[in-house]
Every structure is written in structure tokens, then in C-alpha cells.
Amino acid sequence: MKKILLATIALSMFATPAAFAQQYRGDRDQGRGHGGYEQQHRQPQMKKHDYRKRWSKGQRVPSQARGNRVDYKRHHLKAPPRGYQWVENDGQYLMIGIASGLIAAIANPGR
Fold it and tell me: Which positions carry the signal peptide feature in this UniProt record (predicted)?
């Protein structure tokens, strides 16, 4: 009787991993759609940003597009309040928040 019980337990221990392995193979391709490996491992396309645009008040300027800091006295601009600075971006002077990048004021040179 003990031999039959031990044989049944041993058989169930070896059969359980095989059952899970077969189930996993059946679920392997679900949810991937057509294309399998190639579709899942395609290189992401990097978007090119064109920061040469006309800005408007209230927009957020990305850190890559903040341009060069400007001496406001030399360019006859009003003094920025604490936490703001003037930057030049494609011919426009933008007063932006240093931490947030939000545009508080815009000045066009020579106008």
C-alpha cells in the first residue's frame, strides 16, 4: 500500500511542471498581434522637435529650448521678478519661470 501511495505522489510531482509548461506554450503569443518578436522589439522612433516657433504667454518652454540667458538691462527689458529670467529663443525674448518654464512675458527685439 505504501509503495502505491509513494508512486502516486512521485508521479504527481513530475506531472505538475509538465502541465504548466504546456499551458504556458499555448499562451505565449496571445496579445501580441501579428508580427510576434519583430513587432515587440522594434526600435522606437524619436520625434524631432522644432523649437523655432512663436511662443505665447502661458506656454511651457522645454528645457532644451530655453536658449541663452539674456542681460535684461542691456536689451532694455524690465527686471524679472524673483524666480524668473529672460532668455532668447529664435529672435524673441521670453521671461520664463526658472523652475517651471512657463512664459510670463514676451518681448520682440527692435519693435
Answer: 1-21
